[in-house]
Amino acid sequence: MKNVLVRQDLSLSLKFGFLGLGMGGCSIAYECATIKTQITNNHNPYTALLINTNEVDLRKFSEHSNVRKIGLPGYEKGAGRDIAIGEAAFKEHREMIQKEATEFFVDRDFIWVIGGLGGGTGTGSILEAIRMLYANGFKDKCGLMITLPRDNEGSTVIENALDRLKMLAAALKNLGCILVVDNQKLYNDFIKKQPQASISEYLDYSNKYIASALHEINVVTSSFNPIAGYHFDSSELLKTLQSPGLISIGKLEFANGAIDTANQGTFLPDFKKSIENGTLSDGYQFEKATRLAVSMVAHPNTAKRIFSMSFINSIESTVESLSPFATEKSIAVYDDPKGEDISIYTLVSGLGLPKRVNDLVLKAKETQDKSEDIFAQEDSAISALAGFSRKKVEAEVNTAQDPFANTEVAAAKLDIKNKDDFDPFSILNK
Predict the structure, then answer these.
(1) Ranges for the Tubulin/FtsZ GTPase domain (predicted)?
(2) Pairing status of strand 291-298 against strand 328-335
(3) Domain count of the fold of the chain
(4) Is residue 362 part of a domain?
(5) How far is CA 114 from CA 22, 24, 58, 376, in A?
């Protein structure tokens, strides 16, 4: 599927719309909408509505007929990582956003609401955006795409993300699918491959990577003829996206001659890892999955050699071991006359939150504990200072070396008229 964007003989399963919220959500939505194909009359197959408080951030996105940008007047300078401000901005302009969304997404099969968890606008508005779409006819055709922050983005970012994750977890069974993008995972994978790259190169890579993962799933379910009797088609894809819980995407590629079907070690361990590691996030309990689908594509000559009953049976056995209670386990194989490799895609839905969320909770607690220790030490030092005898300090301290020894000077600096009321330790709170 390496040449997916330059081929004219492909088609798409679903018409996606992307509602981007905040800088992170807008960046991903924009990248998805600017995917350009060679499919006749469908060169720009997706649409995006970009919503942000910070008007400067919105200017970064070029104008396109399939992209609309909505600023939120009164909040042009941004939300400053304050989720209350982000939520208030969306609520204040909900009627305007609602009108734009219902008109712009009228022909869309499925809407992705995208928010980068951790900031102000995206994190603060994501719940309100879902409520708006649910109340306006999109209940059965919208899902969430959320990004998890990296470890080093600061306690405010992590706590903001956890605040909204807690609410989403409580409503998990009432929502459609939730696709998690773990920025720490993508960052780690990228820095291993390109340690000398810049952070801007990483951001460009990650947004394109996310968009490509979703686009390829949308193509593979619609473009090829099945060769083994079963087809995971467009309706099945939509049904999977409508399933409550988290969804995980897996992808694996082999060179045409890499698999020896008589030796399962040449393909089965990698297949299992591709599901467990995922493309965008990992750490799921796959035994809790409700649906699992595998789509495999190869050149006709390769497909004839590889997609035997024994091969399919080994794939089915692996799927069964990972998700024994899934109600649907679809295995579909296709041939692609223009295929350059063997591509295997998996979709697993109905999952719970990944282990990464637990890691973020532990990170937040660790930061909080360290902060409390530091402030406890500071309080101890202040208490010790308060215990000193003033006469002893005045007798031993030279005023030229200690500004606190001369209360007149210190009081004048703090604009205190009555020096007798001056508390020298109050300066520590200024």
Answers:
(1) 15-229
(2) parallel
(3) 3
(4) no
(5) 9, 8, 15, 40
Q: Which of 264, 359, 354 is nearest to 316 (CA)?
A: 264
Whether residue 379 lies inside any domain: the answer is no
Q: Which of 200, 220, 240 is the last residue of a domain?
A: 220
Same domain, 195 and 258: no
Read off the amino acid at residue 320. Answer: E
**What are the Cα distances from residue 51, in Å, to 121, 126, 256, 353, 370?**
9, 11, 44, 26, 37
| Cα–Cα nearest to 423, from 395, 385, 376, 396 | 385
DSSP code for 64: B
Domain endpoint, select from 158, 185, 220? 220
What are the pLDDT tens digits along the chain (430 aa)? Answer: 667 888 888 999 999 999 999 999 999 999 999 999 988 888 999 999 999 999 899 999 999 999 999 999 999 888 889 999 999 999 999 999 999 999 999 999 999 999 999 999 999 999 999 999 999 999 889 999 999 999 999 999 999 999 999 999 988 888 889 999 999 999 999 999 999 999 889 989 999 999 999 999 999 999 998 997 788 999 999 999 999 999 999 999 999 889 999 999 999 999 999 999 999 999 999 999 999 999 999 999 999 999 999 999 999 999 999 999 999 999 999 999 998 899 999 999 999 999 999 999 999 998 888 877 777 766 666 666 666 554 544 444 444 444 334 444 443 443 434 444 434 333 333 3
Tokens at residue 6, please?
A: 């330059």
* Structural domain boundaries, residue 417: 388-430
| pTM score of the predicted model | 0.86
